[in-house]
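Structure tokens please, single chain.
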Amino acid sequence: MASNIATNTRVPLGELLDFVRPRHRALLITARADGTPQASPLTCGVDDDGRIVVSTYPERAKTRNARRRPRVSIVVLSDEWNGPWVQIDGAAEVLDSPESVEPLVEYFRNISGEHPDWDEYRAAMVKQGKSIIRITPERWGPVATGGFPARLAP
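Here you go.
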């Protein structure tokens, strides 16, 4: 049985965003009021300005935490459990409805494509009072895969 050797690939911002765009599963790490970490599993995307974006609600812990302390980290995962992943650290900005509506349209479009009725979608976002968190990448780890250390390679 072949051993999988762990990899760590440093990439520039453009390649990072190319890596993240097709991956939508993530964990957002924010800081609670007492400073301890709080992790939220979620769906994310990349907006047209290269920010990682998350659809949410204003009363969610991640939203309150990001508003209070905008230094956040997001771990973007592959669909396969043992696929490549990356941690991105950056500054979060929270937009609430109605300012969040057009960014939410962009979020949906970049993840899922065209909606059959954009007016209906916009009305739903306002009715639900949706927010969006936009994270500007400032630092990121290498794109990594799990496995054995290279010293154990055959």
